[in-house]
Design goal:
The chain is mainly α. Helix content is 52%, strand content 3%. It is built from 19 helices and seven strands. Strand 2 and strand 3 form a beta hairpin. It is globular, with a radius of gyration of 36 Å. The chain starts with a helix and ends with a helix.
């Protein structure tokens, strides 16, 4: 450890002078050595013959002083300078303030352990000259340097060093990553969300919420960038800076809630897809499909607002009468399949690193592309089946429904990317294009949601109230389009679920215990608790529309709107650029987010 490092860690050096008159003309932290003075270099605290003041032993001074010689102190950064006024006087900076037993009568401020460490340090500095070269210059790597582990912890200071990284990510990659991340489970619920809001109202709300979420995401991006010089690399650090520890906790809790909500929705969908896929294979292998199934276009459950637990519109009547059929008793959507899913997923979620599952991210793009093709194919086959003038008639669709908060809750989660936006854009090759790329990504996401939601809604060949919150539940079990979609999305969600539970685990453990891997047995216990929560929802509340609405509305209000807009207002106030119109507009936006969350309880 160098003297300069020690100087930064310890208290300022004390200045010793051998003449009170000259004390006023010399800078602090110096001593003066006059010609003829001799210093014994083999003692820690030596005494000058004239003044009786101690001199640090690391100053290598010859016993017979020659004013033509340069007094050097190791390391080279602390070498002495000759005074231009008097060449007989040289100034040597004191690198550390050792207690002076001849002058200080009070007890030292350090505890015995620290005092012993300081004594060892002085001894090491005394021996350090033996690592120098024959010319008296310090060696490149001194062999007698006090080890770091022997330095008292109180002399260390933790500094955050910000290093600007050079990104190589093109704008097209950034846009695609943002689009791919936002495309999620809300795609399957978009036709139902438009039905709940009304046709025209639903389209308008999808566009409006896209603008709100884009603006809040932009605020997170800019405020984090402004604080980057302080080493802040995440939005939670910014929340801690402006709002204190409570802001950091709120930010972390909101992020965890969004993750646990996503895992619950994934478990419900995975159970659904596993149930229908296995049932299809079983009935296909046992030849239970009859010829009449070819004429079935869509299914209409009695209550379209809930999941279809079992649709037997497509099997032989004789098979329906077999109440004691062993397969039907074992394989039930909300009673047994969520537990069977645990056997499939649990071995995959206990890995220490999720690197293997990141290789399947391309499945998300394939699934979204397939759903777009699926929508175009079904719309072309079904045609346009919508009218606005005759209520009560087939295909009637109102332009406005009072249950529109169902759409706003789903849309809030559909556009939610705020907890990972910094990680996506941090390697951008041209950071000045981040705002443009973010806007393009949100535009593409909005177009994708409108294409799938509106396309399937206007072409649905039955009463619009039949549309389920999972559009695949409205298709017959032997519909090949639906079979392929379920298989694609099952593997996609199955690869993403371990990543979600991994991110949730490291965030929770880092905030609470300041560790990431507490041990395999603790990880297994935590994963069992999370899976048990998911199973409870899959068994007793298997309605992805409602779950997405609650989670999306809460995260949209807290993490996406309240936190970034509050921080923006505080930052503008500190800069002196805050105006009343800005305050009013941002407060209204936050109140809209709060109203959206409250309204979910009345849908």
């Amino acid at each position: 450890m160098s003297d300069s490092d020690t100087t930064a860690l310890l208290s300022p050096s004390v200045r010793y002078e051998d003449d009170e008159d000259e004390e006023q003309n010399n800078p602090p932290s110096t001593i003066q050595i006059r010609e003829g003075h001799t210093v014994d270099p083999y003692f820690d605290d030596t005494v000058m013959h004239d003044s009786g003041l101690p001199v640090e032993a690391n100053v290598n001074i010859q016993p017979t002083f020659n004013k033509k010689q340069e007094i050097k102190s190791k390391p080279a950064a602390l070498r002495t300078d000759v005074s231009p006024e008097n060449t007989n006087v040289q100034k040597v900076r004191m690198p550390i303030a050792f207690p002076n037993p001849l002058r200080d009568t009070e007890a030292p401020e350090y505890d015995p352990v620290t005092s012993a460490a300081l004594s060892r340090y002085k001894y090491y500095k005394h021996l350090e000259k033996y690592s120098a070269t024959n010319n008296g210059n310090p060696a490149a790597e001194p062999v007698l340097v006090m080890p770091d582990h022997m330095i008292p912890a109180k002399f260390y200071t933790i500094l955050t060093i910000y290093q600007q990284t050079t990104g190589r990510q093109k704008s097209i990659i950034t846009i695609f990553a943002l689009w791919n991340t936002m495309m999620g489970t809300a795609l399957l619920s978009m036709p139902w969300a438009i039905r709940m809001a009304g046709f025209a109202n639903g389209i308008g709300l999808l566009i409006f919420i896209a603008f709100l979420m884009l603006y809040s995401a932009y605020r997170i991006m800019t405020c984090t960038k402004e604080m980057a010089h302080l080493g802040f690399v995440d939005f939670s650090d910014v929340c801690r800076h402006y709002l204190g520890q409570i802001g950091y906790i709120i930010c972390s809790v909101c992020s965890l809630i969004s993750l646990i909500g996503g895992m619950i929705v994934y478990w419900i969908l995975l159970s659904n897809f596993l149930y229908y896929t296995v049932t299809y294979i079983y009935m296909k292998s046992t030849h239970q499909f009859n010829n009449s199934t070819q004429n079935i276009t869509v299914l209409c459950p009695r209550n379209a607002s809930v999941e279809v637990s079992s649709n037997f519109f497509f099997v032989d009547d004789d098979a329906l009468q077999q109440k004691n059929d062993e397969f039907q008793q074992i394989w039930q959507l909300t009673k047994t399949v969520p537990f069977f899913l645990l056997l499939v997923l649990f071995p995959l979620i206990n890995f220490k690193s999720p690197t293997f599952f990141t290789k399947f991210n391309s499945l998300a793009s394939i699934s979204v592309a397939y759903l777009i093709i699926f929508t175009i194919g079904k719309a072309a086959k079904w045609g346009i089946n919508i009218q606005f003038s005759q209520p009560g008639e087939s295909f009637y669709s109102p332009n406005f429904n009072t249950s529109f908060p169902a759409l706003t809750g789903i849309a809030a989660l559909a556009y939610f990317i705020h907890n990972c936006i910094i990680a996506i854009i941090q390697h951008q090759e041209k950071p000045e294009n981040n705002g443009r790329d973010l806007s393009i990504a949100f535009f593409l996401v909005c177009i994708t949601y409108l294409t799938i939601g509106v396309g399937l809604y206007i072409s649905f060949p039955d009463d619009k109230t039949c549309i389920s919150d999972n559009i695949l539940n409205n298709l017959p079990l032997n519909d090949l389009w639906a079979v392929v979609a379920r298989i694609f999305i099952f593997f996609q969600l199955g690869a993403i679920f371990p990543l979600l539970i991994y991110v949730f685990r490291i965030q929770l453990l880092h905030v609470t215990l300041k560790i990431i891997w507490p041990g395999l047995h603790w990880v297994i216990l935590l994963n069992l608790v999370i899976c048990a929560l998911c199973i409870v929802f899959a068994c007793f509340l298997p309605y992805i529309g409602k779950v997405i609405g609650y989670v999306g509305a809460f995260c949209g209000f807290s993490y996406a709107l309240a936190l970034p807009l509050t921080i923006y207002l505080i930052s503008s106030y500190e800069k002196g650029t805050l105006t009343w119109p800005v305050v009013v507009i941002h407060v209204i936006i936050m109140l809209l987010g709060l109203a959206n969350f409250i309204a979910q309880f009345f849908v």
